[in-house]
User: Fold this.
Amino acid sequence: MRRIWIVLAGLVLAGFAAAAGMAALRGAHGNAGVAVAVYRLEPTTLTRTVRVSGTVAAAGTARLYGPPGGLRLAQMNVRPGQQVAAGQVLVRFHAGSLRAAYAQDAQNLAQAQAALEALLGGAAPAQLAADHAAVAEAAAQVTQAQARLAQAAEPATAEQLAAAKAQVAAGQQQVQSAAQAEASAAQAKDEANLQLAMAQGAYPATAPEVVSAQEGYDQAASSWASSESALAQAEAALAQDQANLAALERQPDPHAVVQAQGAVAQAEATLAQAQARLALDTTPPRPAQVAADRAAVAGARAAADLAAARLAGAVLRAPAAGVVLTVSGHPGQVVPPGTLLVRVAAPGAARVTAAVDETDIARLRVGERAVVTTYDLPGKRFSGAVARIEPLGVRQNNLARYTVEVDLAAVRGLLPGMSVQVRVAVGSQSGVLAVPLSAVAAFGQGQAVWLDQRGRAVRRSVTLGEHAGTLVAVSSGLRPGEELITGPSRTLSTLRPGERVRVAS
Assistant:
């Protein structure tokens, strides 16, 4: 850290421009002599500044973390440095299980609310009618089941057995007739196929004989398929008739009796449920039941709210407009709860933090204007002001450094983490002569410069002041209006006092 002097650029450049114009006045010196560059010394204003390096930090930062439950990351929609809008979706997680859980909890809430409303409102006339109808239907089912049980427990009569045997005999006759028909159709199909083959061998494919033979074969094949289906149906019917006869011959069947007894028990249970529902709908609600249903609704609502919050947490949105600073995670990764995924900096303002040496800290004041530049954005200058000076310094290499913060209002292009240069103006002085450092050379125990006096090189000892980049202030040895030889550097190192010089064209 050092204190420097900054020369106002416009005045210095004007001096160099004026020097170029002097070339027209050098005609009197002739063409002989060493070619040199000169400029006329004129008083200028020097601004005393403190220059430090610093780092850009965001004025405010939002952090987005992985949701509870360890979800699998589906989409990462941003990258570092990207501008985002408020509410923009930055991260999505796979949330199929969360959607299913929310749907189930929402359904549970709806059911609990419906139950409470029904309890408080009592059964509607339509509901009571439905309850009575359900009891009547269940009672009829009990009567039918009991009748089937009685039938299963009794042996088959002679009439039932005779009818079943007659049915089997008729089925056997149908199968025999269907089999004969299928055999005849199969023979006819084979003959038609032979006729087709002969026609195809004797005539072209489009000949009438071939077409007729093909039609005959197609008709025979269709007839055979129909007869084969009829045979299958007759055989299936015969099998069913034989099964019925066997069941009658086994009556009473213990297995059928057990099944019938189970059907009676199921019908009686259904009747009991219908009667209980009717009794419930015709009885006023008890206070304890009302309290229990209210508690059920509250619990279901809490579960549904939690499920909704978890589902919403599967999508991370930008809380405000800003710039993405960091991104962590990739699609397919299972993100542990609380993992930092995205950092977003608030736009429009930034703060630069810099360390100032103890030799310069006393010159700084809060509120002083500052100019910030960065090599990353050539030609851009950002205006700000000193916002804070840390009163306690930190010693490094036997030198105390103090933290200084500079607030910037307009920071378009600046990103957090960038390295910047900060200049703070702490005073100025007018009427100062300044020369390029390249024009100063060591001479004896001091420094000297070369002047162009009437076409001759004259060496002049000078006393130097503060440095200002490539310039240095001269406190004594020079006067305004004198012409300083500024180069070329090789020529400066070889000039001799009194040597003839001329202004380079």
Notes: The first strand starts at residue 3 and ends at 7.
